[in-house]
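The following block was generated as part of the benchmark described in Methods. Ligand: zinc ion.
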Amino acid sequence: MPPAGNDFLRLHQSLQELKKVQDQLARGPRQIQVRKKRIETAQFELDELEETLKFTRAEADKKNLDLKSKEASILELQRKLNGAASNREYQIITGQIEADTAAKAVLEDEAIEYLDRVDAIQKQIEESKSRIDDASNDAELFTKSFEEKAEGLRAKEATLKTKITESRSIIPKEVREQFQRLVEAYGPDAMAESSNGVCNNCFVSLTPQAKVMLNSGRTLFCGSCGRFLYQVDQFIEG
Ligand SMILES: [Zn+2]
């Protein structure tokens, strides 16, 4: 007696379920990778910020040194001014003091600007660290939850595989190899239900001859898309 259409339907459903389980199992590691990449990117940004901070601090220190040396030079000029021997010398020194004082003001502004920049970078570093913490926590939680879920999924995968292997016997021996190749290529889409004389995979109508074959329980591959066709029984057997 040929297998009932519902046996094919159940095999088809098992193949569909297996695909779903395997997709979930494959998706998890990809999602974990995405999260790891997020941490790497954030860490890279932090490294760059820390480099910038080092550089900006060095620049700020340099400006402060310049400022101190400018202040010392002004003090020195003021001392010279007190001992100026002539009006001409007095004017020259006064001119130098004026120029140095203007330069000192510029240096002061620059030094403040660098200090502001250091503050801003430090704030960015704090934010970046907190982003890394968040991303790490997220990755850790996700990985843990996936690993827990994966255990169940792998068990389900094994059960389905056994069930599918067992029910392969409903596929006639002479086409079993062809069926197997289709499953390897298309997964659950190796099978297509036929209803109202149409292949549900490619939606092409079956020839009258094919319809007769299918109705009489013969094995049939769709003449258009090559899928293994089956018909669901009108009455579910008890
Ligand atoms: Zn088809």
